[in-house]
Amino acid sequence: MSSKKRKVLDDLEQPGRRSQVAPASQQSLNVAASDDAHFRHLYDRELDFKQLAEKDVDFAAVLQENGHLDFTEPKAVMQLTKTLLSLDFNLKLELPDDRLCPPVPNRHNYILWLKGLVDTSSYEPPGRPACGLDIGTGASCIYPLLGTTQRPSWRFVATDIDEKSLQYARRNVALNHLEDRITVLGRQPEDTLIPLRGRESEKVIHIDFTMMNPPFYESEDDMLSSAQSKVRPPHSACTGAPVEMVCEGGEIAHISRMLEESLVLKEEVQWYTSMLGKASSVETLVDKLKANGIDNYAITEFIQGNKTRRWALGWSFGPMRPAEHVARVKTSGWKKVSPPVLAIEVLSLHPGRSIDHAITRINEVMRSLELLSWNWDTDARKGTGRTRENVWSRASRRKKMRDQSTSFSVLSSAAPRSDPVQCRLGFDVAVEMGVSTTTVTVHWREGHDAVMFESLAGFLQGKLKNLG
Ligand code: SAH
């Protein structure tokens, strides 16, 4: 590939200044909320190159006298990646000159989103053990390195089809002493993307989520025209070999392969996810999900500065739903492709109104229903309920009254229930205190029935309305 072509591979944007907080390696390995907050906000602001240069002599050596970094200079770009990995994650990296040099903030964004996806789609506390599959890990093996650093209970299987990248990926895993938590697996182009079937599937026991940064482009021309259509000129020297950037059918074909495999594996993997380089691909793929009856999915947008945008899409066949902020894009224009609403505000308390009163009322209402379970967490000001059916509709409550009046005969003549109790809807009711107002919000946690979720929120809204 010509150097000109290489220069258009501008998926490198480096916003955000390094946080003042100590590197992860100096913090405890528990998933404390403070750790997560540290990582979440690492690249919120512009990078401060001068500060980086003060902390790392190798970075100082590539920084220009005027304090700028030459993004067309591969050496400088590579050093920035190494410096950020070292200072922010205590990770070491070795890369060849002719493979993709991953921009850390973008790759970190994907990991942050996955943490939210895995954490919120479970009743377990944040940080549950999980095994991720990174399809096409590249020479850097960057996702497994970032993921295992932030989540002590995560493991990874990392695959690639490119021998040189595999060699470097293994070296980077060893450099960071992560061999017991990251397995690097060579694949053939015709193998399944998810190695739970077919060749060498015996080496992979379980996968909770997949991730992929697919070759975005259908051809080198496609890649060039995409770069030229950008308002700003490409200004990075993010080098990539053709195997990394181009594949037949581009990202849609690659992600469609994952979708086909997921239709066979279904709930064997909780989340199937991929990064996307084109907004139009998100729409196409969401249509494909819907055509296959998949209603539980999540979309996010990674904004890096005001230049490059990337998206990620995840889908699940399981009933556990991710949080609203993880699954739905806030920026305009995304309503049509976004999954159904996952959080509905049912009460806004005026300042001065008693929160205790609202909490008592929520608990009274929930306990009056025949739910499978209802548990109130006093510290978190949040309750979790599960139900096998709509038990709040008028018809359902009338039936309950009738049953109660004949309970003796029902009890004495009823055969023991043999059918397993199915949960149709799981939800949280949370009292959330903002700066000026306090709200009560119902969050959809489990199930596939959006109408039932909305009906519950409507019912609760009615029951709480005189508290506002
Ligand atoms: N994950 C890295 C590299 C992404 S480039 C990063 O984000 O920086 C895409 C990678 O996918 C390349 O390393 C390429 O070799 C690999 N790849 C392409 N087809 C593949 C396949 N069928 N199975 C596994 N990896 C594949």
UniProtKB/TrEMBL annotation:
Keyword annotations: Methyltransferase, Transferase
Region (Disordered): 1-27
N-terminal signal peptide: none
A Pfam family assignment: Methyltransf_10
Record has Methyltransferase as a keyword: yes
InterPro entries the record matches: METTL16/RlmF, SAM-dependent_MTases_sf
Name this polypeptide is given: U6 small nuclear RNA (adenine-(43)-N(6))-methyltransferase
Organism listed in the record: Podospora comata
